[in-house]
Amino acid sequence: MKKHKDYDCNLGCMVENTLEIIRGKWKGIVLTLLFDKCYRFNELQRQMPGVTQRILTKQLRELEQAGLVVREVLSLKPFAVCYSLTDLGRTLKPVMHCLKQWSLDHGHEVYALETVQD
Amino acid sequence: MKKHKDYDCNLGCMVENTLEIIRGKWKGIVLTLLFDKCYRFNELQRQMPGVTQRILTKQLRELEQAGLVVREVLSLKPFAVCYSLTDLGRTLKPVMHCLKQWSLDHGHEVYALETVQD
DNA sequence: CTGTATCCCGGAGGATACTG
DNA sequence: CAGTATCCTCCGGGATACAG
């Protein structure tokens, strides 16, 4: 695991700390999904078109390391696991709401400037 | 400029949209700094130990493209520019506050689990 | 079903030198 | 002072195949 910050910053660092946790490409979606209910591995994958097993596993492991997500083995015979949020993970709800709200309010203004026609 | 999203997602996508804008390594700090006042290029660099000119320029250009930051040439004789936030950029203040607050409230809990002694 | 093991690639970030 | 121009490194993300 890598160090969180390689230098001390008393300015935007707080913001960066939080950002690093949710920086992974699929972590935002994973967390958003898990706010509602716990998910099986393949349920998650189906909700996230484009992600591969390896990457999804990786994102989940990292969220687990951060203490935001819990992996629970339900059964071994038919191998089944269940991913859910920890209490700490749940505290991110207002944060994610904040991000979502901004996108709803101002996202289109950004798009207007990015205008990509590929 | 790259496409914002390569697929349509109606779940965590909103969150992702906002995250992509501030994903750059130094963007959080830049924005945080610019909330207070406008900065000269080298003022910014001095506030951000570790960043190189090239990278800082890149981050600023991207924020500019997104419509969050304005670059204003103050004078040519002694070459001077000034970076400040647009109205759109300023709307990110509550979002950044949200991220910062979470770090203050729960950041240490994450650290506790990451425990890296390198 | 839920992974791990390889191999691979592009791009973000960085070091350094040069410029108007 | 505020940048470009090169070149380079590293790592997140992905494709694919295999495994318990």
UniProtKB/TrEMBL annotation, chains A, B:
Transmembrane segments: none annotated. PROSITE patterns: HTH_HXLR (PS51118). Keywords: DNA-binding, Transcription, Transcription regulation. Coiled coil: none annotated. Signal peptide: none annotated. It comes from the Bacteria. Residues 13-111 form the HTH hxlR-type domain. Pfam families: HxlR. GO terms for molecular function: DNA binding. InterPro entries: HTH_HxlR (IPR002577), WH-like_DNA-bd_sf (IPR036388), WH_DNA-bd_sf (IPR036390). This is Transcriptional regulator, HxlR family. It comes from Reinekea forsetii.
